[in-house]
Amino acid sequence: MDPTQVLATIRKVSPGITVVGESLTDVWYLGTFGEPAQEDAKIRRFVTQRTIEMPGGAANVRVSLAAIQNKPVHHLTPPLVGKKIRWWDTERDALVFRHDMDVMVSTASVNMDHSGTRKLVIADYGKGLFDWHFLLKIAKKFPRAVFSPHLTTCGISPVKLPPELTKDWICVVNTSESAMLKQRWAQAWPVGLMVETNGEFPIRMLADLRPAGYVMPEAVRMPLHVVGIGDCFLAGFAAAHFSGHKASESIRFAAHICTRVLQARRPGTCCVTQEDLG
Q1: How many CB atoms are located within 10 Å of the residue 217 CB?
Q2: Strand runs (DSSP E) across 208-267, as ranges?
């Protein structure tokens, strides 16, 4: 099934999905280096020509999902709020500096009783917000979920969960995590499927669940950056998965979405828009 057909199915089924995770604002200062500073000739001032504010983290997943489904997506009370500020040199297409302003909030503040859905997307990119205690609480209430954890900070459950509890969960991890950690985590949390991604592309499904004949998406030009592309993949995969598509079709659809986003080469955080779906 080609991406156009998958998208049509998603919008017809219109799966009710709730996103849980950090609510971040990505601030981009786009500009160039100007004249040397009067205090020190070796230092050049950065001249901001344009400022962009965009949703980041789980907030970006929500916005991307809304574009794909063409309907609003519910975002549960976030356990993390803050800003990620980036200064970008438009002449060199390079990151100059990054500053994170994160405010941690207890996961106890996330009310899991009024989400109005049985389909969950949990986004946790490198924050370790969801330890295994919180995940166990979620698993008991939500039999189906797509989860993107940071395994190093999430920790390993000291107790192996019953397979029937998370058999319909799908875990999306990055190649930066060690193979041993992935294996230990999968043993403690026997999810139905673990998908491994690398930057802008999914590269494989772990274990022996890789679909036959899986091919990489079309090549793209070297992007300016891939900030936020993981959010786009998670949104595309979850939308297709919760609409009843097989894992292989969901991966292909998500990879296609990521390709279109990267080809657009828009400044700021990568985010799925209606233009990418045309």
Answers
A1: 19
A2: none
Identify whether the C-beta of residue 204 lies closer than 8 Å to the C-beta of residue 181. Answer: no
Q: What are 240's two structure tokens?
A: 């297709």
Tens digits of per-residue pLDDT, 221-238? 444 567 888 888 899 999
**Quick one: DSSP state of residue 240?**
H
Gap between the Cα atoms of 274 and 277, Å rounded:
5
**Could you tell me the two tokens for 176?**
């930066």
The band of 211, judged by pLDDT with boundaries at 50, 70 and 90, is very low
Q: β-pairing, 119-123 with 94-104? A: unpaired
Structure tokens at 226: 């891939």
Which residue ranges form the domains of the chain, and what is each CATH number? 3-24+54-79+106-277 (3.40.1190.20)
pLDDT digits (tens, 9 = 90+) for 11-20: 998 878 888 8
First vs last Cα of the chain: how many Å apart? 17
**Distance between CA atoms of 46 and 32, rounded to whole angstroms?**
6
Which residue carries 């192996």 as its tokens? 160
User: What span, in angstroms and rounded, lies between the C-alpha atoms of 200 and 191?
Assistant: 23
pLDDT tens-digit map of 130-141? 666 777 777 777
Q: Which helix (H) or strand (E) holds 153?
A: helix 151-154
Residues 6+ apart with CB under 8 A from 198: 174, 175
